[in-house]
Every structure is written in structure tokens, then in C-alpha cells.
Amino acid sequence: MKVIGVTGTNGKTSTCFMIHHMLRAAGLSSGLMTTVAYGVNENIKPQLQHMTSVPMPELMKRLKWMKSQGVEWLVLETTSQALAQNRTWGIPYSLAVMTNVTHEHLSFHKTFERYRGAKVKLFRLTDKNQKGLRAGIINADDPSADYFVKAIAHPIMYGLKHGDITPKDVIITATGSTYSINTGQDELHITCHLPGSFNVENSLAAVAVGLTLGLSKQQIEQGIASLKTVEGRMTNIDEGQNFSVIVDYAHTPDSFEKLFKNLKPMSRGKIIALFGSLGGGDKSKRPLQGKLAGTYADEVIVCQEDDRGEEPEAIMSDIASGAESAGKTRGKDLFLIHDRVEAIQFAIGRASKGDTVLLLGKGHEKTIEDASGEHPWDEIATAHAALKAHMKK
Fold it and tell me: Rounded distance, CA 301 to CA 359, Å?
């Protein structure tokens, strides 16, 4: 069983799903392990734990099960924390993929250099596997690209602007994107149904994997086009309303900036952004999130995400300080509503024709955590219920 490892701050899960769909289009038996789900071929199950890389005993159990199912290629989303803690030790990575490296998990790694150093371990592990491809797919537009190039025997570069694999004639709409790639031998015509320029980048990484594995033009094109959605990743919630409601897992400053920059030009009305931040996590990112939301969104609603044992008011205040620095005023265009259900209902109630409501941070997750422990949660179902109630008024 050969393994493709995908690491990065943002875009890992979507990239993994695209690669998995390409492998299936090529007729290969493919395993998948991501933040959202895991499984074999079309037998994909939800990932219930609030983690991407599960503990080593569970990981080994899943690997053993996948091998028994005849999996030829496993697409494994691989986090910096798992790499730093050597929880991926012994996994025979054949191919490594880097989507990007930006501000995140500094409460664990302490510095950006240590965070980046943990991620590059995936490339070093891949380079040591003499039976593998010893190849690394690297985002050439990322400032850390050269750092990853040095860690692998065969770097393959992709990017919107730079690299061996770059797109042309890019068309981005609210429902996805299309573009072409000239490989020197052929021209690929890619259709990606996941919206946003960041998903153009993610699909480019997947294309690079397909080309490295020797998949055909048809297999790459059909594979990426066959992925219609990833749960909690730019998921559109439709109950017949005349405004947009989108659920997305974005929870880092970089993912916020990319999301807002993509949506701002396409939004016909106000952007109403709702989110919180992880309790006990990286406190330094909270005001950054608030400032970005305050800059790009017309209204900001701060609420619960996963408080854990931290004081909820302190978390919301950290975020609010950033939004206020961007010019937002409490009670006017900045609202602090801790209860997430109430906050979602409030956000939807603020929307008018043509507006966009963004529900950020929880995405696919099936629990929400406070000081008393974990409780069942479903962001998509909660949004549907709030919309139905709103439509009846």
C-alpha cells in the first residue's frame, strides 16, 4: 500500500478529496483519511474526532483495515502536530504534498519556524523511502517553497503564478472554476466545482499528483470534475431564501483573508460573518481574525466555537478587539452572542436580498466543546433549521 501525504495550513482536506477522486477515476483502489472523513473507495465514513491525525493505535488499526481491503494508494492528510510528535513514524510515504504554510498552531509549536520545520518532516520521511517516488508537490507561490524543495529528491512545483504547473484562462464563478494547463505534451481542461481561487490552487496540487503518478488526461479531468462538494467546505445552504448562506471550516487568518477576498467581488449585498475561536488555542490569531472580518465583512457576529475550559467572554473580547480596530462598533455592526444557535439565527435574521451570511470555523465537525465536555453539533443542520424558521416568519 503506497501513501500520499498532504500537509499545509489550509486546503489539505479538499486536496485529499480531489486526489482520491482522481485515483478512483483511474480505476485504482484508494483509501482516504482526512479531517472530515475516512474510508475506502466509495465507502467513506465521517471523522468524528476533532483531529486530523488520529492517535497511533487508531491510525494503525485503520491502516491494517485498508490494506485488508486491497487499497493500492492511501491519501493521508498529515498535520504538523502529528509529525512533531512522530505519530506518523514508520508510514511509507511515497509522495508528499504541501498546500501552503501560514499562521496557525503556534500555541503548540511556539514559533513559525518550528511549525514549518514540523511540516517539512513529511518531505524528509518521503525522501528516505527508497521504495517510493521520493517526490514532493510544492506550492511555488508560497514563501516557504524553497525550504521544502531542499528536503526532497524530486520537487514538482505548482502555483497560480509560478511553477512547473500553472493555470491559464482561469474563470472563477460562485460555483467553481475552469482553467487549462499546458503540460508540454498535452493540454488539460480542468473543471473544479469547489468555489474560490484557493480551490484553484488545491486542484493544481491534485493535478500535479496525477501527472506525477502518470494518470491520463481523461483520468485527471474526470477525477477532479467528479468532486461536487466537501462537507463544511464552502457548503451552500439553500432553503429558497433570496440571500446566500455558506458554511465553511475557515478558522485561520490566512483562510479568512482568502475567503473574504474571493467573496467580496462576487457579493451583491452585505457580507455578514459569524465565527468564534478555539479556547486554549493560539490567542494571537484571534484579533487577526477579528480585524480581517472587520475589514472585509459589513457585519461581524462573534460567538462560541469550542471554548473548552477558557472563559467565553475573554475569547470573544480578543476577537472583538481586532474587529474594532478595523472600524466596527459593538451594537451597530459588531455583535457578541455566545450561544452559537442563537447567533446563527441572529445572523440569518440580519440578512436581506443579495446578502451573504458566512458561518465559519465549525464546518463538518459533529461536536462543540465547552468546559463540561463535548456536545453534539451539526452546523449545516443548524443553518437549515434557522433558515426554515426564518422563512416562516
Answer: 10
- What are the structural domains, with CATH classification, of the chain? 2-225 (3.40.1190.10), 235-392 (3.90.190.20)
Instruction: Return all residues near 101 (Cβ < 8 A) that are at least 6 apart.
Output: 8, 9, 115, 116, 119, 142, 143, 144
State pLDDT tens for residues 303-340.
999 999 899 999 999 999 999 999 999 999 999 999 99
The 10s digit of each residue's pLDDT in 157-205 is: 999 999 999 999 999 987 889 999 998 888 999 999 998 888 999 999 9
Pick the closest to residue 256 from 295, 298, 293 (CA basis): 293
Q: Which residues contact 183 (CB under 8 A, 6 or more apart)?
A: 165, 211
Residue type, 115: Y
pLDDT grade, residue 53 (50/70/90)?
Answer: low
List all residues 6 or more positions away from 65 whose beta carbon is below 8 Å from its beta carbon: none
- Give the bridge partners for 155, in sequence order: 136
Say which residues have a Cβ less than 8 Å from residue 60's Cβ, sequence separation at least 6. Answer: none
Alpha-carbon dihedral of residues 212, 213, 218, 222, nearest 10 degrees?
-100
Helix axes 253-263, 197-213, angle to 10 degrees: 110
